């Protein structure tokens, strides 16, 4: 019985590693300011790109720009976490997301959007 568990654990680990690799290819976009700031985040929760409408830069309002960038990053991270969780749910067979803390599961501890 333990041998079967170990065999299945190895297969699950292999599937999880492949899925995590694929997450690098998954991208989502977060936006703020009516699309004036757009951030692309991949499934590994890495910010891939930031686009700021040049018109927004003309105002010179650094505080507004900082708020819009933060909001766009947070939106992108949230969408990426959701997409990553769905991806892992399909291979994890109901295992709790907490086993994958890099995706923002409960075991991840404090961080953006997590107490």
- CATH level-3 fold name of the domain at 23-99: Ybab, Chain: A
Note the main sheet.
3 strands, antiparallel
CATH second-level architecture of the domain at 23-99 = 2-Layer Sandwich
The first-level CATH class name of the domain at 23-99: Alpha Beta
First-last Cα distance: 39 Å
Number of helices: 3
List the helices and strands in order.
Answer: HEEEHH
Overall radius of gyration: 18 Å
Helix content: 40-55%
- Counting DSSP E segments of at least 2 residues, the number of strands comes to 3
Strand order of the largest sheet: 1-2-3
Beta-strand percent range: 15-25%
Summary?
With 115 residues, the chain is of the alpha+beta class. 50% of the residues lie in helices and 16% in strands.
Write the layout of secondary structure elements.
Elements: H1 2-23, E1 27-32, E2 37-42, E3 47-52, H2 54-58, H3 62-92
Antiparallel strand pairs: 1-2, 2-3
Helix pairs in contact: 1-3
Entry keywords:
115 residues, single chain, alpha+beta, Ybab, Chain: A
Describe the structure.
- With 115 residues, this protein is α+β, with helices and mostly antiparallel strands.
- It has a domain at 23-99: Ybab, Chain: A.
- The chain has helices spanning 2-23, 54-58, 62-92, and strands spanning 27-32, 37-42, 47-52.
- Strands 1-2-3 form a three-stranded antiparallel sheet.
- A hairpin with a 4-residue loop joins strand 1 (27-32) and strand 2 (37-42).
- Helix 1 (2-23) packs antiparallel against helix 3.
- The longest helix is centred in the C-terminal third of the chain and has 31 residues, at 62-92.
- Mean pLDDT is 80; it is low at 106-115.
